[in-house]
Amino acid sequence: MAGPGDSAPSANDATPLVVLSEPTPEDIVALEDSLYGFNVAATGVDDGRYLSIFLKRNDGTIYAGLHGHSWAGVCEIKTLWIADSERGKGLGSRLLAAAEQEARLRGCHVIHLSSFTFQAPEFYEKHGFQRLTQLEDFPRGHANVLLVKTLAPAAPA
User: Which single residue of 17, 23, 48, 111 could bond 71 by disulfide (Cβ 3.0 to 4.6 Å)?
Assistant: First the structure.
């Protein structure tokens, strides 16, 4: 939602900066696509793909899911969520295993993600992830943990 103070002049006052609290999904995709294009030009690697796995009810409502992407031999999980009513049923493990398998099929050798200490870093550690580092007091009283797992190549079909 835009509000007072959401637009500020740039350093050279030629073009105003637009600060948005609620950007459109299209603007986010355009920004990500632009960065991806830069990365491809710099590396020559153009194998980037989204990775999304959902569990939906008959009416289409998502009750669990995982979203991220793969690029250049690395898979990043940005989101893994399970509805409160569905937790403790092994769905997180199923989603994570499916993501790891797909990452292997895509030729990824590493998978990484972050999890706040009040979320599930121990869950990921039980699945073979290792803590690389954590940013303390983010949010206050907690930490943001960066975790990584080296993947074995996919078995031939």
Answer: 48
